[in-house]
Amino acid sequence: MKQIESIKEFGGWLNRYQHPSTSCNCSMTFSVYLPPQAETEKVPVVYWLSGLTCTDDNVRTKAGAQRYAAELGLALVMPDTSPRGDDVADEEDRYDLGKGAGFYVNAIQQPWARHYQMYDYVTAELPALIEQNFPVLPGVKSISGHSMGGHGALICALKEEGAYRSVSAFAPICHPVKSGWGEGCFSAYLGDNRELWKAYDATELIKSGCKPMPVLIDHGLADEFLEEQLFPQDLEAAYRERGAPITLRMHEGYDHSYHFIATFIGEHLAYHAKALRG
Amino acid sequence: MKQIESIKEFGGWLNRYQHPSTSCNCSMTFSVYLPPQAETEKVPVVYWLSGLTCTDDNVRTKAGAQRYAAELGLALVMPDTSPRGDDVADEEDRYDLGKGAGFYVNAIQQPWARHYQMYDYVTAELPALIEQNFPVLPGVKSISGHSMGGHGALICALKEEGAYRSVSAFAPICHPVKSGWGEGCFSAYLGDNRELWKAYDATELIKSGCKPMPVLIDHGLADEFLEEQLFPQDLEAAYRERGAPITLRMHEGYDHSYHFIATFIGEHLAYHAKALRG
Q: Residue-wise pLDDT tens for chain A (278 aa)?
């Protein structure tokens, strides 16, 4: 693991690393924000999964999350959204397949399967690396994300029962088997058998018996992708069907951008801090 | 004036406009953040001048300022850093001259003079436009900025005595006649007579008798440009020579980036709010 950047922010440190990933079979980049508290004690971690086209840089630059992480004493871990490198399969003319669009699944179709193992990477390899190398409390972690990364946060928390103390999402793709983005990635990475797709779909996971862990989800009503891609009502219905509570907030006027995330990230991190420190 | 973007953030609105500028003789773009309070009352304004290579987009995306503006009831006005357009003179292979590097002066040398009238634009034309079109308190304004824009904020406030209630700056170019960035732009825009440069140099303005208005300035001690370009000690010496107080804070570990700005922008906006609402 090699540190490639170190920036002081809000009294803590925003560091960036490259490391050889055994899951993704390539070099991966991630950022970590260590709050000031991490200088004297081990801190809980919130993992942030970003959306289509992003790297680790978008959230750390645009969300304003570090201010709250410093106040709350939380580390933030921000992975990339896909494997990278010249030998990694890609669709260069598409923003929603290949690099920048790992969709947080383990691909089983070639040419994707060789590197696109993002589910294992974010749920297992990266947390192990973090716990080995940083002053964090082992196993004390939560997860959040945006859009494709909101989908990622939901499926990681639902599938890895007990692994995350809390989960939240901004404008997540709640029912990807029904969305164009999900169909494009799932058919490429997982093949034509739609039954296999359901193992990476939050709504389908709840329908098929996954424990309905509490979730905090924010959507903007002016989100240009809300109708066609996100389907929060499907996830809400699945939770209701199970008799489980879901906190789904629909915000008048907000769009899909980081300005929307910036507005509510403080509430999300406070929500996670309560679960992590409670 | 044409609205080209409108994004809800922290309960207020981040809007973007294009308008024909009489000062710069071209179409100019700027962003305005209106806090929630602006829906029911007129609010004070903080002008933000950005640094080399920036447009109006950098600060609104990276600084995290809107959160504090919403809390404090301040409008933020974020102009571009130079004239733009195909017929505007430029040095395409340089980031520190021409487009993105207006340096907040009125150019008197061709080919620059036709469009590079950024001093008049930010001190006169833009405030008039803002006060005519937005729910702001006329004449109740402050100014801040970063690097080249920190220089801009300082010279605007010092030269336009009484026009700004307060001024602050992040990593400003405090003595541009001595810095490579300043020399490059001043010689191009103003010509070889260095005496003319001093009218746009904060340190020289204080030396030559400008009223030493109180300033709040933050620098990072890990700023890679501190030694060669910024010269805060010269401005401090000029203030001391005049027997005037200056708040110059040197922060261990911080660099020149927006992560540094994000860390302290809340304190700057609170400083301005006190002056604007006091």
A: 999 999 999 999 999 999 999 999 999 999 999 999 999 999 999 999 999 999 999 999 999 999 999 999 999 999 999 999 999 999 999 999 999 999 999 999 999 999 999 999 999 999 999 999 999 999 999 999 999 999 999 999 999 999 999 999 999 999 999 999 999 999 999 999 999 999 999 999 999 999 999 999 999 999 999 999 999 999 999 999 999 999 999 999 999 999 999 999 999 999 999 999 97
**Inter-chain contact A259–B9, Cβ cutoff 8 Å?**
yes
Q: Is the pTM of this model over 0.80?
A: yes
Q: By CB neighbour count within 10 A (0-12 exposed, 13-18 middle, 19+ buried), where does B57 fall?
A: middle
B263 touches chain A (CB under 8 A): yes
CA distances from residue A33 to A15, A57, B265 in whole angstroms, order as listed: 6, 12, 19
**A188-195 own/partner pairs: CB under 8 Å, 24+ apart:** A188/A97, A188/A107, A188/A109, A188/A112, A189/A103, A189/A105, A189/A107, A189/A108, A189/A109, A189/A112, A189/A113, A189/A116, A190/A105, A190/A107, A190/A108, A190/A109, A191/A108, A191/A109
Residue pointed to by tokens 């773009």: B29
With beta carbons under 8 A apart, name residues in chain A contacting B11: 263
Q: Return the closest-CA partner of residue B99 out of B16, B225, B188.
A: B188
* B232, B33 Cβ separation under 8 angstroms: no
Cβ atoms of A157 and A163 closer than 8 Å: yes
Task: Give pLDDT tens digits for B180-199.
Answer: 999 999 999 999 999 999 99
| ipTM field | 0.94
Amino acid in position A100: G
- The set of residues, in sequence order, having a beta carbon less than 8 Å from that of B44 and lying 6+ positions away, is B73, B74, B75, B136, B137, B140, B141, B142, B165, B272, B273, B276, B277
In contact, B177 and B194? CB cutoff 8 Å: yes
B260: nearest CA partner in chain A: A9
Phi, psi at residue B225, to the nearest 5°?
-105, 0
Question: Is the distance from CB of B247 to CB of B46 less than 8 angstroms?
Answer: no
The closest alpha carbon to A179, from A111, A96, A57, belongs to A96
Interface probe, candidates A252, A257, A263, chain B, greatest B C-beta count within 10 A: A263
Edge-to-edge strand order for the sheet containing A168-170? A168-170, A216-220, A247-251
Distance from the first to the final alpha carbon of chain A: 32
Q: Which amino acid is at B25?
A: N
The active-site residue out of A80, A90, A218, A223 is A223
Which residues 37-66 of chain A have a CB within 8 Å of chain B?
A: 61-62, 64, 66
The Cα–Cα gap between A59 and A242 comes to 33
Cβ <8 Å between B255 and A222: no
